[in-house]
Amino acid sequence: MYPAKKENQRNKPNGKPGKFSWIFYFLLVNLIIFFFIGKNQTFEEITWPVFENEMLLKHDVEKIDIVNKETVEVYIKKDSLAKTRYKSVAKVFKNYANTGPHYFFRIGSLEVFEQKLDKAQINLADNEKVAVSYTNRQNWWAGILSWIFPIGLMLLFFFYLRRASMGGPGGSSIFDFGKSRDAEYSKGKISPVTFKDVAGYDEAKTEVMEIVEFLKNPGNFTKLGAKIPKGVLLVGPPGSGKTLMAKAVAGEAAVPFFSLSGSEFIEIFVGVGASRVRDLFNKAKEKAPSIIFIDEIDTIGRVRGRAMSAQANDERDSTLNQLLTEMDGFDPNTGVIVMAATNRADILDPALLRAGRFDRHIYLELPNKNEREEIFKVHLKPLLLDKSVESELLAGQTPGFSGADIANVCNEAALIAARNKKAAVDKQDFFDAIDRIVAGLEKKSKIITPSEKKIIAYHEAGHAIVSWMLKNVDPLVKVSIIPRGKSLGSAWYLPEEHQIITLAQFSDQLCTALGGRVAEEIVFNEPSSGALDDLEKVTKQAYMMVANLGLSSEIGNISYYDSTGAYEAAFNKPYSEATGQLIDQAVRKLIETAHKRTEDILLQHRTGLDNLARLLLDKEIVYKEDLEQILGKRV
After folding, report:
1. DSSP string spanning 303-322?
2. How far is the CA of 544 from the CAs of 44, 223, 537, 550, 553, in angstroms?
3. Among residues 311, 301, 308, which one has the least CA distance to residue 345?
4. DSSP type of residue 52
5. Catalytic residue among 373, 460, 521, 599, which?
């Protein structure tokens, strides 16, 4: 039998010291010598008055030695060392006398010291004056350490870099900034999200599930000559579930899944982004078939070489070029599928969107009512609910909400219920949560004067009256003069989902937005600053109607809307100055017409305006039922 090999002693806790530990011990010894060697513990520091009055004038000084014109070393006579005051410096050890120097003090100027010394001994005879000697002394250890110590530190740093470049205990290297920082999901690390957790978006799930099915069973597709798409781009507004969809793919796919953000490619070092792209695709190719997911790809995928662009970035462009090459270059990456997500597809480079790279574009729009109901069911599962909570009702109360908004509503409702110490989350908690998310937190403690409160009441009553009388405005739910967030009051509507909005609907919306300002002008004969948000919405909507949608007879059927974003960073408008003046005139005419129409409606229903304002001042919140009693049933 052969004896077993001895384990490397360097890796043992009690083994021999490391290869370069002698440098550490050498530096430590030098530090000890520098700080401790040569220091005489009986060598005490004094001042000139003490030297003059207690030693020199009492004839106890044998001689003094001036070292390097900076320090005066004092030697005491042997007979005088027997005095009590010199007891501390008389002996070095118990039975050994101290031959000196015994004391020292520092001087600033040698000439001044000599003058003071001569003045102190002016009355002494020549044979009684203290002998003075001059010495130039060098500290050899300080000189040696002044160049050995920095060299030692440089050696330590060099060996540290060398060891780090070969990979530390975790296998990482300080030179790995060019490596990809992806999070890999494989058999040992599986995403907990599956397609069951993605509610709604049935069409989008079908397309993504097809990608997963191809990777699991490629034979079902390749036998017919089909090729798998090289890239899948998920496009949608923030919170629509793009990243959640990618997590579901990671949870469903039985192949390695590499996930990272677009910003992780960009560093201050030139060329790092391209290097990380190469490293990422090399990892994916080694484990093919596999999926790469790049979140927020617009970080590196912006249009290259855009004229007048203030966002030009050579590092980002080189990263994008490398990504384009890896996706569809001379070197095919068979079995690697790239998924990406963005909410700014309009600014992506056309070379990235062409067939052969991102072949398939999946649009995730804001969910409709049925999809919102399914999303609510997913997020309501972990909550302890009251019987009054219905997902269908909540879906109807949240038009325009994304999946992230719905998740936030459910969480906020649970927090409100817990704050009120309820046993379960009820319907009112969800309504309060929706109000909290849409308009902000209630601020009942906000100081509002009675005159301001009256203006707010008439302002909100004006919105309510106009919307109640116009058939193309969304149904009114309630009116409140309780401050929320930055607003002092609000009118709540239940928006209906429209794919197309007509000119009549736009006109009614303008009148409703101007209802508050016109009510102030009618009642108080002057406007206030409370209509700022309303005027902003009216102005933007009017310009959109005239310049983008072609809903103005002055401009005609012309649209200056740019879906590509080419004019986003341009300094010039896409129309002439004369056309700009026409647009301004058309917008002003549109708003003035809506203002006159709103004024006619409120003057016709002035009694209802006053009654609703008084009710708001009394109750602060008025619901649909109260409006029906004042104004009658809505047509």
Report:
1. PTT-TT-TT--HHHHHHHHH
2. 89, 51, 11, 9, 14
3. 301
4. I
5. 460
> Does residue 460 have an active-site annotation?
yes
Burial pattern 499-537, b for ≥16 Cβ within 10 A else e, equals: eeeeeebbbbbbbbbbbbbbbbbebeeebeebbeebeee
Residue 448 CA: distances (Å) to CA of 444, 451, 457: 10, 8, 12
How far apart are alpha carbons 504 and 484 in whole angstroms? 31
pLDDT digits over 181-201, tens only? 555 655 555 667 778 778 777
Peptide bond just before 495 cis, omega within 30 deg: no
Phi, then psi, of 324 in degrees rounded to 5: -60, -40
pLDDT above 70: residue 252: yes
Q: Is residue 3 scored above 70 in pLDDT?
A: no
Beta-carbon contacts of 120 under 8 Å, excluding residues fewer than 6 positions away, are 52, 56, 57
Q: Which one, of 91, 92, 62, 88, lies nearest residue 77 by Cα? A: 62
**pLDDT value at position 24?**
61
Structural domains of the chain, with CATH: 18-168 (3.40.1690.20), 177-363 (3.40.50.300), 369-439 (1.10.8.60), 450-631 (1.20.58.760)
Its pTM stands at 0.62
Task: Give me the helix-helix angle, 503-524 and 577-604, nearest 10°.
Answer: 60
Cβ contacts of 443-450, under 8 Å, gap ≥ 24: 443/482, 443/483, 443/484, 443/485, 444/482, 444/483, 446/483, 448/483, 448/488
CA 37 and chain centroid, separation: 54
Residue 311 predicted with pLDDT over 50:
no
Whether residue 593 contacts residue 511, with contact meaning beta carbons closer than 8 Å, is answered with: no
Per-residue pLDDT, 603: 94
One-letter identity of residue 514: L
Give the C-alpha separation, 104 to 36, whole Å: 18
Whether residue 229 has a cis bond before it, omega within 30° of 0: no
pLDDT tens digits, 446-493: 778 889 999 999 999 999 999 999 988 888 888 988 888 778 888 888
- Which residues are CB-contacts of 485 (< 8 A; sequence separation ≥ 6)? 439, 440, 441, 443
Could you tell me which residue, 399 or 607, shows the higher pLDDT? 607
